[in-house]
Write a structure and sequence with these properties.
By secondary structure, the protein is of the alpha+beta class. The protein has two domains: 39 residues; 54 residues, no CATH class. Helices cover 31% and strands 28% of the residues. It is built from one helix and four strands. A four-stranded antiparallel beta sheet has the order 1-2-3-4, with no helix packed on it. The N and C termini lie far apart (88 Å).
Length: 99
């Protein structure tokens, strides 16, 4: 019975110490402004040219890609695929109406 009482006291002390450590960790992160954010890094990329007179009709993003739907001045349509990590143009997909 004595061993059980000692075990309960030890586990109670462990709970209190663990809770205090958790509160200290949260308070430390709040005072520093939280965990470092990857979005705070500087982003520089090459210029991406679109055809003269074209307009961006829609944009869709994925975790690593940006797709721009372009309407060309002569009435055609293109999809422009851009890599978000480097800002590089990956390719262009020409869209043609089916006959």
């Amino acid at each position: 019975m004595r061993a059980l009482k000692v075990l309960v006291v030890v586990m109670g002390v462990m709970l209190i110490v663990g809770f205090a450590a958790l509160v200290a960790l949260i308070a430390g992160r709040v005072s520093r402004g939280g965990a470092p954010n990857a979005a705070t890094r500087v982003f520089s990329s090459p210029t991406i040219d679109i055809p003269r007179g074209a307009r961006i009709e829609a944009m869709t993003s994925a975790p690593d890609r940006l797709i721009l739907a372009l309407v060309l001045p002569e009435g055609g349509r293109q999809l422009l695929v851009i890599d978000l990590a480097s800002g590089a143009r990956l390719g262009t997909i020409e869209l043609h109406p089916s006959p």
